[in-house]
Amino acid sequence: MSADVAWYAGKRWIVRAEVNRTFAGSKSIDTWDVLAGIGYQLTPPEEPGPRAWPEDQAEDTTRNEVTVFAGRTVVNSFDSSQSASFL
C-alpha cells in the first residue's frame, strides 16, 4: 500500500511526503518506508499547483532538472542499527 501528498508552495517549490507499507508474508519481515522531500521547478509553471501532463514528444526535453535524495537506513533487528543514506 502507498500514500503520498504534495503541497505546492508558491510557483516553484514543492513539499512532498510518501508512506509505503509492504506485506511480505508470514515467514518474512513486513516493512514501512516513510519519505519526505522538497522540490524546485527550474522552469516556473504558468500558475501554482501541479502541471498538466505534457503531450508526447519525439525528443528528450529533460535537461534542466536537478534531483537530490537523502534519508536514513535502519536495519530491522533488536539493535536497530542505522546509517545516513544519500544519492
Write the layout of secondary structure elements.
Blueprint: E1 2-9, E2 13-22, E3 31-40, E4 70-74, E5 82-86
Antiparallel strand pairs: 1-2, 2-3, 4-5
**Number of separate strands:** 5
Rounded to the nearest angstrom, the distance between the terminal CA atoms is 25 Å
Overall mean pLDDT stands at 76
Biggest β-sheet strands, sense, barrel: 3 strands, antiparallel
Q: How much strand?
A: 35-45%
| Count of alpha/pi helices | 0
Oligomeric nature of the chains: single chain
Low-pLDDT runs: none
Going across the biggest sheet, name each strand in turn: 1-2-3
Radius of gyration: 18 Å
N-to-C series of helices and strands = EEEEE
Describe what this molecule looks like in 3D.
The protein is built from no helices and five strands. The chain has a three-stranded antiparallel sheet, with no helix packed on it. Strands 4-5 form a two-stranded antiparallel ribbon. The protein has one domain. The model has no long low-confidence stretch (mean pLDDT 76). With 87 residues, it is mostly beta strands.
Summarize the structure.
The protein has 87 residues and is an all-beta fold.
Based on the model shown, name its key terms.
three-stranded antiparallel β-sheet, 87 residues, single chain, mainly beta, elongated, two-stranded antiparallel ribbon, 44% strand
